[in-house]
Amino acid sequence: MTSLIRGCRTAGLVLLAAAALAVTRRAQADDFIVYSPHVVATQNEIELRGYSVTDGRGDYDGERAAELSVAHAFNGWWKAELYLAEYEREPGEVGKLVGYEFENTFQLSEPGRYWADIGLLASYGHPKGGGPGELEFGPLIEKTVGRFDHRVNLVWEKEIGAGAASKTEFRYSYQGTYAVSGAFRPGLEAYGRPDDDAYQAGPIVAGEWHVPHSTGNVEYRFGVLLGINAAAPRRTWLAQLEYEFF
Q1: CA separation for the pair 92, 201 (Å, rounded)
Q2: 10 vs 23, residue with greater confidence
Q3: What is the tens place of the pLDDT at every residue in 23-47?
Q4: What pLDDT was estimated at residue 129?
Q5: b/e per residue, 182-219, with b = 16+ CB within 10 A?
Q6: Residue 33 vs residues 104, 128, 150, 211, 214: alpha-carbon distances, Å
Q7: Phi/psi class of residue 198: alpha, beta or left (left: φ > 0; alpha: ψ in -120 to 50)?
Q8: Is the CB of residue 48 less than 8 Å from the CB of residue 65?
């Protein structure tokens, strides 16, 4: 963890699943990410990601969120990530910090050993200023065929603590990319939140560069999601920057 602190300072596969009924909520920054099940032992990460909505409808336009996190892989199967700041702005309101989150990725299978690589996401979010916390859990699936890479996440969410809703929410996400090179991987992402009746999909571009004379890499991802149905925002712009090092 010492190197992590130093770094902080310097800084076709498609799976569908049935969803449990739940209460409606607005999207969060971690709704728009497709996690990989892979864990690289002793790797550290500093990450900033978020989204912004442009939509002529007042109930959606101007919505945005962002998250800043640090992570460390303690071994080859467990990566812990701490979200130091979570920012949200709802349409017509002032932006604010809303809480913190402790997230874990568990790699459950050796890469390439089975038909697909499998992992598990488990996290706890704590709201700023009180209120119920939130658990997230679900499988992470990845399949690579030549230059094509496919990822699917199936995530359930449950509030816990005083005032928590009794029902469970569900979301799914898909990312498919083609590696033109390590630094340029165009592709497609799709997201579904059945409980909100909101479905989105659109193009993304991602990639990774090695930082000369260091053990670090810079990873990026940008894209735009288009609303597939009326209940989804018309355009959601995505951005992610990450520094990985040992």
Answers
A1: 25
A2: 10
A3: 335 566 678 999 999 999 999 999 9
A4: 86
A5: eeebebebbbbbbbbebbbebebebbbeeeeeeebbeb
A6: 15, 22, 13, 24, 27
A7: beta
A8: no
Secondary element (H or E) of residue 112: none
pLDDT at position 1: 53
Q: How distant, in Å, are the alpha carbons of 34, 163, 244 from that of 79?
A: 16, 30, 13
- The pairing of beta strand 217-227 with beta strand 198-210: antiparallel
CA-to-CA dists, residue 172 to 15, 49, 155, angstroms: 9, 19, 6
Sequence-distant (≥ 6) Cβ neighbours of residue 177 within 8 angstroms: 148, 149, 185, 186, 187, 188, 204, 206
Question: Any residues with CB less than 8 A from the CB of 146 and at least 6 apart, and which?
Answer: none
Domain of residue 55, CATH code:
2.40.160.40
Structure tokens at 4: 């992590």
Where in 41-167 does DSSP place strands (E)? 44-54, 64-73, 78-89, 96-107, 117-127, 133-145, 148-160
CA 205, CA 222: separation in Å to the nearest integer?
A: 6
Give the CA radius of gyration of the chain.
18
Query: Is-contact 236 50, C-beta < 8 A?
Result: no
**Structural domain of residue 199, as residue ranges?**
2-245
- Kind and range of the H or E run holding 243: strand 235-245
| Mean pLDDT calculated for residue range 106-121 | 97
**What is the token pair recorded at 25?**
């909520």
